[in-house]
Amino acid sequence: MPFYRYKCEDCGEEIEAFQKMSDEPLTICPACGGHLKKLVNNVGVVFKGGGYYSTDSKKSSASKSSSKPSTSTSKSE
Description:
Strands 2-1-3 form a three-stranded antiparallel beta sheet, with no helix packed on it. The longest helix has 8 residues, at 60-67. The model has no long low-confidence stretch (mean pLDDT 78). It is of the alpha+beta class. The chain has helices at residues 52-55, 60-67; strands spanning 3-8, 14-18, 36-38. It has a domain at 1-43: Rubrerythrin, domain 2 (Single Sheet). It is elongated and about 85 Å long.
């Protein structure tokens, strides 16, 4: 069961409630009786490993061609 955060629009009190996902959201502030608004929670995400960018998003042929020095011949007039 997740924690849900609420904030009272009248008194500014912030409340955390441990509720089932199927439960109805809280609407009445226990401190003043005002209207509660559900807040969006932050999510902690940790990316570990080599990473998508360095392993999957680059084509191997593109990195080989970019590492070769370009030999362009220009005609001098």
